[in-house]
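Incident review: delayed structure delivery

Summary: a single-chain prediction request sat in the queue longer than the usual turnaround. Root cause was a stuck worker, restarted by the on-call engineer. No data loss occurred. The affected request and its eventual output are reproduced below so the record is complete for anyone auditing the incident later.

Affected input:
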Amino acid sequence: MIIMIAGGTGLAGRALTQRAVSAGHQVRVLSRRPAPAASGVEVVVGDLATGCGLASALDSVDAVIDLSNIVTRSYRIAERFFTAATRNLIAAEGAAGVSRHALLSIVGVDAFPGGYYRAKVAQEQALAAAAGSADVQHIVARVAQFHDFAAQTYRSFRFGPVVLAPPLHLRPVHLDDVADHLLRLLTSEQHGRADDLTGPQPLNLLDMTRRYANTQPRPAPVLALPLPPATRRANEARVLAPAGQAHGARTFDHWLQQQRQTASSTNLRAGLPHRHVTRR
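Output delivered after worker restart:
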């Protein structure tokens, strides 16, 4: 199968690309500008926001997986990007004869407050409407937050000597499990909303971030970030941590071990001494 991955240069996209190539698929990665390609991967140029270049990028493609993203807290900016990108993709897919389209979304997205989450719901709705008109089978795959969210929180919420992490209840999932889930859906007969994918165990982002911090040479203290009232109510209802119908097998401990191994390999290549990290 020839698969085009929109958002294939991001964190989830790189994991999906590797798993798809390993599974024997021909993979194209859509990029806004020319970029070097990994072995067995073709990079094609196209702009989701304008639709420019999508027709040629989709030539002979069997299926599309949309992992495209925008980093913003603004509903208006996120909604404009997600809906335009979806409509442009589906229109080009319909013209090119693409048969399947899978969208990566988030568990609890319709019940958790915030502009970004509301924009993802708008994207799901835009996909359903556009796919019906273009005769493209579509799948919405809602998945839990990635294990990598702990590392992102540690890097992004650093304030001076400390890190502030929100105590969100999650059921996080490994990116490899997400990739395998998406690839299974593409080759299934399923369409519309797929079973939610969650991780094997409920965890709290505050604890996850502290455990990730402990893999670092000089861990920063991680303190709890208070939640606004609406977010606190959704968190208490475990909106982002449903049991889910499908479960990834790889645990957060497995992910942490990968981070330690990666850090150790990086230090060796750089000629840095190995540092022992005490576990809490």
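Verification: The chain has one domain: 2-270.
Action items: add queue-age alerting; document worker restart procedure.
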